[in-house]
Fold this sequence. Notes:
The structure holds two protein chains of two kinds. Chain A is of the alpha+beta class. In chain A, 43% of the residues lie in helices and 23% in strands.
Amino acid sequence: MISDQQILFHKIDTDPDAVLLTKQFKDFGAIRNLLLLINEIADFSDVFVYCFDSDYIFFKNEWSEGIADIKSQKKYSDYLHQYDNPFYKELPLKHASGAYFGKLGLIRRGDFEIDDKMLRSIELIAQQIAITISNASSFEQNKTIKELANSDDRFKSIIQNVSDIITLVDRKGNIIYTSPSTTHMLGYTPEEMIGVNMFQFIHPDDIEAVGKRFSERLQIEGIGELIEFRALTKSGKYILIETLGNIQLNNPSFNAVLLISRDVTTRRKIEEAIRLSEEKLRALVHNISDIITIVSKTGEIIYQSASARQVMGYEENELRTRHFSEIVHPEDFPGLMAAFKKTLETTGVTELVEFRLLDKDGNYFYIEAQATNQIDNPNIGGLIVTSRDISVRKKAEEERKLLIKELTKNNADLKQFSYIVSHNLRAPLTNLMSMLNLLDYSTISTERSMKLMEGYKTTTFSLNDTLNDLISILLVKNNTNIQFADIPFVLALNRVTLSIETLINESGTKINADFTQAPLVKFNQPYLESIFQNLITNSIRYKHSSRPPEIFISTSIKENEVIFTFTDNGIGFNMELVKDKIFGLHQKFHHHPESRGIGLYLIHAQITSFGGTIQVESEVNKGTRFTIAFKNN
Amino acid sequence: MVDLVMNVDDDSMGQMLSEIILSDHQFCQKIVNIHDGKKALDYFEEQLHLSVEEQKIPAVLFLDINMPVMDGWDFLRVFHARFKAFHKKIKIIVLTSSLDHEEELKAIGHPLVFKYIAKPLEPWHISGLKKHPAFVQEFAA
């Protein structure tokens, strides 16, 4: 804390009468000796003593003459540039009370360093100089001290308690007093600052502006304008300060410039943050393709974002004061009005509403909008409506609808076609087959007719097989609600072996089936029969010429699948050549007369339509193995 | 041997072939061929006006499903609703060239359908019928 006395001393220092202090100072011989003593410690190029109350300084730069001349023409201001000189150092000169009244300036030569020991010695000498000067002038001060000591306690109380810094500087900017709040704001104690030039605490970039203002204002007595600058804190950081100057150089109670400073760093930070967030929000609103509109509770457009330009052709706020009904498609208006009223009654975000808006060119386009009720928010006072142009999506939807319609029709046509095939073509074919069955071949007398009859029979049955396969495919592809149930494998196998009994017997085929591990499968019975039939007939059709067909069938359960394996000992095929094509339509791998390239395609379709899989392994002349995985849930 | 078989089918060739098989197997005395469901209903409508003694009700009715004018399903619907008196006397056998498994299930599930046979009608179908308990008495001798 600064004592009352210190304040008083500062005042005395700046008192015009006190200027006489140095002028009348008789004992400068003592000071000269002290300065010479410094020179003995170290060889400075300049050593001077400067008191705040005078522009002139004691100085000595011609040590050989041993003179320190009080009447030197050198002014302290001539040395101001030395602040930037790395060889310049100054030490404060204080009264016994601790108040600063001047400084000891030292400009060392570049070829030596001041070590700590030297510095301490010089500090002691500086102290001695200060005491010498103080003693010489103290008699002059007593009267004023007493007067001022009794002065306004209220004033003292105020300046010691305000959070603003109150600083007194002389016309050169030297700090002669600063209030205790300085410590709080800048970290320095008043003692550390007093006697130092205030420009030392100002950010280099701000010195010019502050210095200019300061020198301009010095000519005018009274209060100036606020100025902002960055001040150096003890921790080395800069804080933003706002200062009001009051020139009281001619006021005998001050004889100083009164500065009131306030830390505005926090305020500036907040202002900056607000500005940035406003900018961000604005940028956001400007750059998103969504249109932000604020609509009053009567439906009047209060604000409409610039993004409306790309979408609708309107400039930012061009639609302001218009009612939204003016730009909404008449057909969509009742629905939108209902949604609008509903929004007014609720809080939070409403559901998406689709409607058509009029663009600047007079065309309607589809948008999708969502509103938030912010009527009670004084900053908004309306509904915030976020709208998005969905005309592209709408168009795509329309196109998709058309496409679906067309596809549905095509599909119906195909179903109709498959119906025609399954009935109109099959009915006469069954008749042909029936005739062949009923024909009494013993009545055919010539061998030629007999051959033709045989040919007729073979062709008809072949046609029948092809047609049946095609119909099966159509049925698999068309049926969406195929029934499926738990079917015993043995049942399907028995039905198939019964229907192709002749084929099996004539070829001498042996079927070994083991369904004990997994007797049932959840599947469609005709499909399962089709799988058995196709696999068995394939095995017989592509049997090896040197051995009768033998088939091994087994089932098992693996996790949630039923695994069905079917192995034969037929001629097999080269996997390398056919692996990707084996389940394709009309892919024949043998030049066998009965090969139609449909069976495997069909069972693949039947299996995969239920989410199952079928795989095949084969080796030429050894046989083929099919592995089917049925989903078991 | 049963007295009367009715064959409802738009396909005359099919009817002719069925006739041959039925006669080969000496299944019935007489066959009435009718070409669509509507004409079949007309036949039964006429019978309703006759006395029970005069009525000629087939013991077996082969019914095609896909027919012009009135198909097999429509026939079954009307027959089921209108000719209850004849239900017990007639065994309806759906005889169709369709390979649609769903149609098969639909037919088998119908209360008036006795049997479902996929065309062509073959001799073993008839020999099977003759052994069926519903007819076995007719062919006992």
